[in-house]
């Protein structure tokens, strides 16, 4: 894992970080679609967020300056959360769930991180709200956020199998827009 991902080049960001962030948004959207009930919580917005979760994922991929493994850890944590607390997943909670999961992923995978005020600005929430979201997510996960290197590798392999094994998008893209459509198609096939 990259201990100082603030030195990722623009090419590295577009080839790895953005696809991982968009994959996470697709995963969370699929959990929201699968859920039939929802509860009121700190994650639930009063009104729909004006940006799609895919666009939000793209935004995070560009501005977070996070190692791609942070998004893999966030995806693993989201799967754990859905198994235990699927009732928290709905279209009104997706964005706040995503930002709290990404924040935990960043803090778990990186040695050098920014302060929560930096992340709050990117996520589009206040510092106080982000701190509350982080604590609420830790409580929902029972503070169990350890993800082994083997879990990360398995998830990475599942996401990016060679073309001969599965119809997965390549990490090299000519445009981010085409990548978004390919990831959405991949999610629908699963």
Task: Describe the secondary structure blueprint for this structure.
Elements: H1 10-34, H2 53-63, H3 68-85, H4 94-109, H5 116-123, H6 127-140, H7 149-159, H8 176-189
The span between the termini is 28 Å
Number of strands: 0
Number of helices: 8
Which percent range fits the helix content?
55-70%
Beta-strand residue fraction:
under 5%
Low-confidence stretches: 1-5, 163-188
The class by helix and strand makeup works out as mainly alpha
- What would you report as the Rg, rounded to the nearest angstrom? 16 Å
* Major beta-sheet overview: none
Given the C-alpha coordinates, what overall shape results? globular
Mean pLDDT: 81
| Secondary-structure element pattern, one letter each | HHHHHHHH
Descriptive account of the structure:
The protein is mostly helical and 190 residues long. It has helices spanning 10-34, 53-63, 68-85, 94-109, 116-123, 127-140, 149-159, 176-189. It is globular, with a radius of gyration of 16 Å. The two termini are 28 Å apart. Mean pLDDT is 81; it is low at 1-5 and 163-188.
Key traits:
single chain, 190 residues, mainly alpha, 8 helices, disordered N terminus
Short description:
The chain is 62% helix and 0% strand. The longest helix is centred in the N-terminal third of the chain and has 25 residues. By secondary structure, the protein is an all-alpha fold.
């Amino acid at each position: 894992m990259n201990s100082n991902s603030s030195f990722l080049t623009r090419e590295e960001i577009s080839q790895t970080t953005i696809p991982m962030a968009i994959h996470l948004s697709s995963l969370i959207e699929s959990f929201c679609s699968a859920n039939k009930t929802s509860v009121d919580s700190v994650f639930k917005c009063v009104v729909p967020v004006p940006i799609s979760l895919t666009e939000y994922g793209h935004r995070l991929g560009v501005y977070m300056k996070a190692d791609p493994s942070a998004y893999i850890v966030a995806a693993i944590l989201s799967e754990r959360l859905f198994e235990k607390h699927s009732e928290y997943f709905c279209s009104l909670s997706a964005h706040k769930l995503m930002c709290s999961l990404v924040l935990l992923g960043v803090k778990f995978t990186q040695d050098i991180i920014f302060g929560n005020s930096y992340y709050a600005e990117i996520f589009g929430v206040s510092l106080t709200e982000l701190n509350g979201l982080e604590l609420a997510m830790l409580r929902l996960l029972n503070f169990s956020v350890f993800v082994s290197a083997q879990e990360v590798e398995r998830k990475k392999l599942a996401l990016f199998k060679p073309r001969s094994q599965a119809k997965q998008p390549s990490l090299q893209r000519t445009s981010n827009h085409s990548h978004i459509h390919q990831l959405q198609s991949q999610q629908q096939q699963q």
